[in-house]
Amino acid sequence: MSSLDAIREGYARFDPRAYLQNNYMPPRADFSSEQCVVPWKLRCLAETFASGEICGRTLIDVGSGPTIYQLLSACEHFEEVVATDFLEVNREELQRWVRGEPGAFDWSPFIQHVCKIEGRGEPWQEKERRLRGRLRRILPIDVHCADPLGAPLRPPADALLSTFCLEAVSPDRAAFGRALVNVGSMLRPGGHALLLGALGESFYLAGAARLPVVPLDEDDVRGALSDAGFTIRDFRSYTMPPALRTGVDDVQGVFFVHAQKPLEG
Ligand SMILES: Nc1ncnc2c1ncn2[C@@H]1O[C@@H](CSCCNC[C@@H]2Cc3ccc([N+](=O)[O-])cc3CN2)[C@@H](O)[C@H]1O
């Protein structure tokens, strides 16, 4: 069995609800302090989209998992947001939220926080409605395929977002770099890529699943982006405080990068 097949097999045990519990409930989802990891992630995205430079028809979110927090600032600047994930259980979790079905995860604390930091003074239910209206496609994806969606995205996306995916599905740094090239093929020349990911992580838990992660440092991320032809516009990192090292993974820190695909070539 190839290392990619072993990873794919490992994801058969991925439990979306356990994953949400581990990363998107307190203590990690604590909105009382800007020093906490979730507010830091939301602020990176809100500040980057606030300029209005990153906008267009389509943003594609690569490896959405069962989460929508990463789309809350993005959705203001695109006509359509396309979510993607490898697992049907995650795509179903996203559909439950989009349809407002009972049992869907409650993202309202995240929506309220993003409305607060974006400072438009709008009711959070308005942002929830707007995201639901723009999240019209939830597609299967495999970042290890040259065409991750199974066929080229036509027209290519104006922006690409991916949070905590590539390093958690790649057996080594070379595979991480190839996956970045693959997902970059869905982005138009001049398009923007926003990545949030784990630094120094080697595993994480999601219920019965214990998934391997390729440990990356800042230079690994910078090098992979450069090798994939991207220009780095902004790079930020966060160190995981002891109180948030809860045993659900061994993540040391989080990176945020805003990169851009060259106009020509
Ligand atoms: N071949 C594939 N192509 C695309 N997606 C694939 C593929 N295989 C699996 N997937 C899909 O990708 C996965 C994305 S979730 C990956 C989790 N990454 C690690 C976890 C995340 C996390 C979150 C938050 C914080 N924090 O401090 O706030 C820390 C951490 C660190 N631990 C999952 O949805 C799977 O379904």
Automatic annotation (TrEMBL):
<dbReference type="GO" id="GO:0005829">
    <property type="term" value="C:cytosol"/>
</dbReference>
<keyword id="KW-0489">Methyltransferase</keyword>
<keyword id="KW-0949">S-adenosyl-L-methionine</keyword>
<keyword id="KW-0808">Transferase</keyword>
<feature type="binding site">
    <location>
        <begin position="63"/>
        <end position="64"/>
    </location>
    <ligand>
        <name>S-adenosyl-L-methionine</name>
    </ligand>
</feature>
<dbReference type="InterPro" id="IPR000940">
    <property type="entry name" value="NNMT_TEMT_trans"/>
</dbReference>
<feature type="binding site">
    <location>
        <begin position="142"/>
        <end position="143"/>
    </location>
    <ligand>
        <name>S-adenosyl-L-methionine</name>
    </ligand>
</feature>
<dbReference type="InterPro" id="IPR029063">
    <property type="entry name" value="SAM-dependent_MTases_sf"/>
</dbReference>
<feature type="binding site">
    <location>
        <position position="69"/>
    </location>
    <ligand>
        <name>S-adenosyl-L-methionine</name>
    </ligand>
</feature>
<comment type="similarity">
    <text>Belongs to the class I-like SAM-binding methyltransferase superfamily. NNMT/PNMT/TEMT family.</text>
</comment>
<dbReference type="Pfam" id="PF01234">
    <property type="entry name" value="NNMT_PNMT_TEMT"/>
</dbReference>
<feature type="binding site">
    <location>
        <position position="90"/>
    </location>
    <ligand>
        <name>S-adenosyl-L-methionine</name>
    </ligand>
</feature>
<dbReference type="GO" id="GO:0004603">
    <property type="term" value="F:phenylethanolamine N-methyltransferase activity"/>
</dbReference>
<dbReference type="InterPro" id="IPR053384">
    <property type="entry name" value="SAM-dep_methyltransferase"/>
</dbReference>
<dbReference type="GO" id="GO:0032259">
    <property type="term" value="P:methylation"/>
</dbReference>
<feature type="binding site">
    <location>
        <position position="85"/>
    </location>
    <ligand>
        <name>S-adenosyl-L-methionine</name>
    </ligand>
</feature>
<protein>
    <recommendedName>
        <fullName>Phenylethanolamine N-methyltransferase</fullName>
    </recommendedName>
</protein>
<feature type="binding site">
    <location>
        <position position="24"/>
    </location>
    <ligand>
        <name>S-adenosyl-L-methionine</name>
    </ligand>
</feature>
<feature type="binding site">
    <location>
        <position position="19"/>
    </location>
    <ligand>
        <name>S-adenosyl-L-methionine</name>
    </ligand>
</feature>
